[in-house]
Amino acid sequence: MYIDVIERIREKARQDPKRIIFPETNDPRVLAAVEIIRGEGIAEPLLFAREDMEAFQKEQFAFLLYEFRKGRGLTLEHAREMMEDQHFYAAMMLRCGFVDGMVTGAAHSTADVMRAVIHCLEINDRVGLVTSAFIMGVPHCSFGEEGVLCFADCGVIPAPTSAQLARIAVSGAQLFQDIMDKPARVAMLSFSTKGSASGAWVEKVRQAVELAKDLKKDFYIDGELQLDSALVPEVAALKLKGSDVAGQANVLIFPSLDAGNIGYKLTERLGHARAIGPIILGTIQPCSDLSRGCSVEDIVDCAAVTVVRAQKRSLGTQNSFVNLDKYYAYSGL
What is the pTM assigned to this prediction? Predict the structure, then answer.
């Protein structure tokens, strides 16, 4: 059952708890979740408020952010303004290795969170795209892995191109394999199954499948597939044969943000599913953007997933922002 899978994720987090920052101290759900997280040893939580920001550290972070993004027109003065926002400050703490992950968004919009993420965190060069996914736990469900599936993208890219869909598929597959330790079987969803319909929307999904295969080789992918062809073995057997994904998909890639957002909320509300996320994909440093409708348990589960992702990080990516010698020369230290 999915509840057992969720508990296994929490147990995996407990084996090597990481430092997770929570830059929302005024939300009672966050405070309650942090107590559970600390009590169960899932993570080493750090509650972080605006008044916790230090003047010297703000100036250092502003300079580092300026160094990173000055080629895109960011001025030092604008970087200083950004560091007045605790989300930007917290994201810089993550980027510079003071913490191992960030969980936020219970009281802030996705746009607020994503601005800090995109400006401050390091983007995975191979993917080159920041997007998001949900881990969905569906009760009394035989689909996916014991009722657990990954849905993407449900929160960031409104109308993805074929190239963007391919990168969403790669990121979603990696997330599923990191969290579940199972092979990802990725279905690129459409209103068509292998030519049952035609048109530009269908062709976009077909091209995305081929591009994704070129980007990454260690997961199964197929498309275009209708949802029932992706999940239901009996339907898959009628519509197509010889697929490693059809009828057994555990990662669902939606063709648009409309479809993804509606799909996860339908599953959550009508299927009484647990929706863990949105989990930010495409950054080196792990981060989760909570739904503003999240529960205390959702926050705890998001933290557990963030810890497991932090455990998977390669040691070579730590503290890769910029050499601090430039800052010391600039500041006269």
Answer: 0.85
